[in-house]
Amino acid sequence: MFVARPKRPVGCSSGGFSLIELLVLLAILAILVSILIPVLLRSRETDRRVRCVDNLRAVQQALSAYASANGKNLPRVTYEPSRAATGYVAYTGADSPDPFARGSQVRPNDVTASLWLLVRPGLVTPGRFVCPSTGGRADAGPVAQQSNFTGAKSLSYSYASPFSAAPGYRLNTDLLKPDFAVLADKNPGTAGGDDVTAPAFDAGPFALARGNSNNHGRAGQNVLYADGHVQFQSTPYCGVGNALVRDNIYTALSPSPLPEGQDPPVAGRGVLARDLGPAWAGDSLLVPTDDE
Q: Among 41, 78, 164, 259, which is most buried by a count of CB atoms within 10 Å?
């Protein structure tokens, strides 16, 4: 005898998900992913910033050791004020065995070769000069026979230019102001949408981002100060000054040296060019830039 089976209600399923339930589940997963991915990315960047701070602290220890052995002076290769009283070059003579030897390919006023003076005697390893937030790679050659970084990829940081004709300007640990910026995430320069000379000191965060380092997505930069502490700053105006107005660490305050003893207003945007140097005793000019 034939017995008719009852029909299932439309939309019901004896097992698994219906199409509507599956779509709802996928929508929930998409929302969760959209929430979690930014959190994970921020967590990774926070970790990278911490490791960047560790790098700068290691370099600070090397700078301190170098200064103790060299009359409190921070590293500097040959300076020829008669030929170039201000300005700098970068990445010259990496394969030269001695930056101070006669005929060395390291040119005078080389700011990156000055930093490499910390690496040659083993005061710090080349890897400490690569910020974890960048795609850089440390130099792996025989460092004792090398006189400079091989290029921009092996150096993620900018150093206070030691080359200046400004009266009273010396990278000497006994003379530097405590809030003088010695090293920081690399200067973003003035190319590719960056411009460290564009934002005013009191500009909003989006404008100031044009002057922040690209190492951390323009959010700011880790800065090593002369008193030895490292701090993440969300503005390039974080050098010598007061609570309200500070020096732009990536620019020279003036295109020419200022008179000795003058503590100028530091709110100016400043200038940036390879043939310029720090303009006064408290003027941080961290170079090279990532345009080079």
A: 164
Which residues, 6 or more positions from 248, have their beta carbon under 8 angstroms from its beta carbon? 196, 201, 211, 236, 237, 239, 266, 268, 269, 270
Query: How high is the pLDDT of residue 9?
Result: 53
Question: Exposure of 170 by Cβ count < 10 A (0-12 exposed, 13-18 middle, 19+ buried)?
Answer: middle
> CA–CA separation, 196 vs 188, rounded Å?
7
- CA 175, CA 111: separation in Å to the nearest integer? 20
Which of 126, 139, 148, 248 is closest to 188 using CA atoms? 248
**Residue 83 CB partners (closer than 8 Å, separation 6+):** 108
Rounded distance between C-alpha atoms, residue 140 and residue 153, angstroms: 12
The number of helices, as runs of H, and strands, as runs of E, in the chain is 3, 7
pLDDT digit string, tens, across residues 80-116: 887 778 899 999 999 999 999 988 999 999 999 999 9
* SS3 assignment for 42-68: HHHHHHHHHHHHHHHHHHHHHHHHHHH
Contact, 64 vs 228, CB < 8 A?
Answer: yes
Enter the tokens of residue 164.
Answer: 């200046």
> Which residues, 6+ apart, have CB-to-CB distance to 19 below 8 Å?
none
Q: Give the C-alpha separation, 62 to 27, whole Å.
A: 53
Q: How far apart are CA 115 and CA 139, in angstroms?
A: 13
Average pLDDT over residues 201-217: 94
